[in-house]
TrEMBL record:
The chain crosses the membrane at residues 41-57. GO terms for cellular component: Golgi membrane. Its main location: Golgi. One of its GO terms (molecular function) is beta-D-galactosyl-(1->3)-N-acetyl-beta-D-galactosaminide alpha-2,3- sialyltransferase. It comes from Amazona collaria (yellow-billed parrot). It is a single-pass type II membrane protein. Keywords: Glycoprotein, Glycosyltransferase, Golgi apparatus, Membrane, Signal-anchor, Transferase, Transmembrane, Transmembrane helix. Residues 1-21 are annotated as: Disordered. InterPro entries: Glyco_trans_29 (IPR001675), Glycosyltransferase_29 (IPR051142), GT29-like_sf (IPR038578), Sialyl_trans (IPR012163). Disulfide bonds join 147-331. It holds the Pfam family Glyco_transf_29. The keyword Membrane applies. The lineage of its organism: Eukaryota, Metazoa, Chordata, Craniata, Vertebrata. This is ST3 beta-galactoside alpha-2,3-sialyltransferase 4. It is found in: Golgi apparatus membrane.
Length: 391
């Protein structure tokens, strides 16, 4: 009471000269107003603090409301749930193969490709000295990594999921699946694309963003050789380009180099089950080599496949299941879209959102898609992943 009396200000009267505008009275008037509305101010302040807290808690942008996938950051939840499903679950393994593991310390691997690097050390030494292995700063600094793994399934067709997919921090795509012309259904953002030589898009620039990480999934030693030839070719071509410039005619001196490069690429052609691109216009700085550890985890822990399969019994995970496993090891939230094959009796249903092929095309594929469906359902039931399309 005493305090409020002391702060009392003279009555403001109406008239030609408004005393409230007098500089002398301004502070007093302000204090009176503050005094009068103290409750309201405290309320607004409390609301503001709650918003700040909520924003920090969500580790997200500072506004309401937010897109569905932006509402929360369930920090630690993926780790907790993944550990229930995956024995010895750890986030300690690098996502991409690193030169240091094959240079100073030769990390022995238990398995050959696709589950390990045993026997591929020498080529890796060469290949890793011309590739990068870091996770870009833009992904590392994310306080919450909300990831969408986009499968190539037909269920994305006419799904209108594009805008939603683009809202995720990390969008993982697979193989040669296009985005150009399908943006409304599948979006256009691609943070990472997993592929192998036979599934590399012949025109990577049209279907990726300039900063897309092009992640090679190695299945056989030839896959490393293809990548090495492509990357060395890029170097040679750019060198030739420099030499050619002054006269705009290749000098005879570069011909042996060009012939050498063509013969290397022709040698690399053999040993693939489908013709991979021989010229691949991608930025070498964006190329990474996936650590086969994630293939091992997918096969051994999610599909319970034996790591010592007899040569005749061939079964391996699909690239999509591998991508989900990878996401479980570095994302704070994993949503999937475009997963799910038609029933095996359904011979006419197309399997991709972008081309007219059926399950028949997968006859020699060495995948067990019904087994994988069980694994994906288990993850959905556990709430470890969520599905944006239907399954
Ligand atoms: C003929 C053949 O070998 N097809 C394989 C193709 C093919 O090599 C590439 O598309 C390149 O042309 O690749 C695969 O897969 P594909 O490229 O078809 O699809 C990528 C991933 O999406 C998930 N998917 C796809 C279709 C569908 N109806 N439901 C799904 O769940 C799967 O998880 C799948 O992995 C592959 O790499 O796994 C598996 C396919 O078996
Ligand atoms: C994730 O696996 C990829 C794709 O989904 C599979 O369909 C494909 O399977 C091929 C398999 O890898 C080939 N095996 C070897 C050792 O290369 C197999 O080879 C048989 C063959 C050989 C030559 C010409 C045609 C077929 O072919 C399978 C496809 O039919 O593997 C992909 C990863 O490479």
């Amino acid at each position: 009471m005493v305090e409020s009396k002391a702060l009392e200000v003279p009555q403001v009267t109406s008239g030609s000269h408004n005393e409230s505008s007098s500089p002398r009275l301004m502070p007093l008037l302000l204090i009176k107003m503050i005094n009068k509305s103290r409750g309201k101010i405290l309320g607004v302040l409390a609301l503001f603090l709650v918003m700040v807290w909520y924003s920090i808690y969500r580790e997200d942008s500072f506004y309401f409301p937010v897109q569905e996938n932006k509402t929360t950051c369930p920090l630690g939840e993926v780790e907790r749930k993944a550990a229930q499903l995956i024995g010895n679950y750890t986030r300690d393994h690098p996502l991409f193969l690193q030169l240091k593991d094959y240079f100073w310390v030769k990390t022995p691997s238990l398995y050959e490709l696709p589950y390990g690097t045993k026997g591929s050390e020498d080529i890796l030494l060469r290949l890793l000295s011309i590739t990068h292995y870091s996770l870009p700063e833009s992904i590392q600094r994310l306080k919450c990594r909300r990831c969408a793994v986009v499968g190539n399934g037909h269920r994305l067709r006419n799904s209108s999921m594009g805008e939603t997919i683009n809202t995720y921090d990390v969008v993982i795509r697979l193989n040669n699946a296009p985005v150009h012309g399908y943006e409304q259904d599948v979006g256009s953002k691609t943070t990472m694309r997993l592929f192998y030589p036979e599934s590399a898009h012949f025109n990577p620039r049209t279907e990726n963003n300039p900063d897309t990480l092009l992640v090679l999934v190695p299945f056989k030693p030839m896959d490393f050789q293809w990548m090495e030839a492509i990357l060395n070719d890029k170097k040679r071509v750019s060198m030739v380009g420099n030499w050619v410039q002054p006269s705009s005619q290749p000098t005879l001196g570069v011909l042996p180099l060009l012939l050498g490069h063509i013969s290397v690429l022709l040698q690399v052609r053999k040993g693939f089950w489908k013709q991979p691109p021989l010229i691949w216009d991608a930025n070498p700085e964006q190329v990474r080599i996936l650590n086969p550890y994630y293939m091992e985890v997918t096969a051994a822990k999610l599909l319970n496949l034996s790591m010592k399969q007899p040569r005749k019994v061939k079964q391996k995970p699909t690239t999509g299941l591998l991508a989900i496993t990878l996401a479980l090891h570095f994302c704070d939230l994993v949503h999937i879209a475009g997963f799910g094959y038609p029933d095996s009796a359904n011979k006419k249903q197309t399997i991709h959102y972008y081309e007219q092929i059926t399950l028949k095309s997968m006859a020699a594929s060495e995948h067990n898609v019904s087994h994988e469906a069980v694994a994906i359902k288990r993850m959905l039931e556990l709430g470890l992943i969520r599905n944006l399309t239907y399954f």
